[in-house]
Amino acid sequence: MVETIYNATVIGKILLTPDLMILRLKTDTPRNEFKAGQYTTIGLLAKEARSTNSSVPIEEFEPDFLIKRPYSIASAKNDIRDFEFYISQVKSGQLTPRLFNLSQGDRMWIDDKILGIFSLNDTPKNNNIVMIATGTGLAPYISFLRSHIAEHPEIKMAVIHGAAYPWDLGYYSELSFIQNVFKNFFYFPTLLKADNNWTGLRGYIEEHLKNGILEDVGIEVNPEKTHFFLCGNPKMVDSVTDFLALNNYTKHQSMCPGALHIEEY
Ligand SMILES: Cc1cc2nc3c(=O)[nH]c(=O)nc-3n(C[C@H](O)[C@H](O)[C@H](O)COP(=O)(O)OP(=O)(O)OC[C@H]3O[C@@H](n4cnc5c(N)ncnc54)[C@H](O)[C@@H]3O)c2cc1C
Q: For ligand 1, which residues put their CB under 6 angstroms from it?
């Protein structure tokens, strides 16, 4: 495999912490329009250098082997050449240490295909939307909001984002801005390890749900009225799924519609 396999250029890299970044790519040719919430696959050749803060596992790749992984698209559905991703570094991983070593102007590979059923397409127009994430599981919701927030003034939308520290809250400014502009949108960041300077929510997402955080803003936990989206840490997904099952939610599948949508990383 030769380097001409690369078909995109890095046009932006925002390092939020040493292990968390927003990466923007421009593709050489446009992709087809996609649904907000879908994912695509990106990759780098094994010969590319790893970041200096990653660990160095024993790797047995040929230099021209393409290492590729799926990532949720954070950009809006009609941006078919400029793609944004929200990525955390797995220090012992194969691809992310190479992604974290990229600079603006570097070349890389991105798939033609955009896939996934984690989208708002199967959600009834009059249903509220609750988007729950830990960490980079927030990415598909940024695409949802950038693509659709202005279309749905009649329903309520909420993002509950769990993280450890304030600096792990990617897109905090954008989500706070949307909350200020759209009266039907509610943003609930909740932190596990913040110091006393943090005056917002603390603790686990499922505890806030049990304590009625959504009912307080007029969102009913009822599958006839509200669709839930979950993306992120498997423990969070399991415990919120258990809570929702007690409220008669079933998982949405292509052949079997439900009001609980789950993206597993
Ligand atoms: C549909 C889909 C969408 C995804 N979207 C995103 C996204 O938007 N942002 C994002 O950062 N990731 C996303 N992922 C995960 C991503 O595809 C990679 O698995 C991840 O970035 C690790 O890749 P790697 O090559 O560095 O690690 P690998 O070499 O694949 O993994 C090394 C080891 O680390 C473990 N590991 C994998 N991920 C993590 C993690 N997050 N934390 C700790 N250990 C881990 C693996 O189990 C493995 O044992 C998504 C996955 C799927 C299936």
A: 39, 69-72, 85-88, 90, 92-96, 136, 139, 265
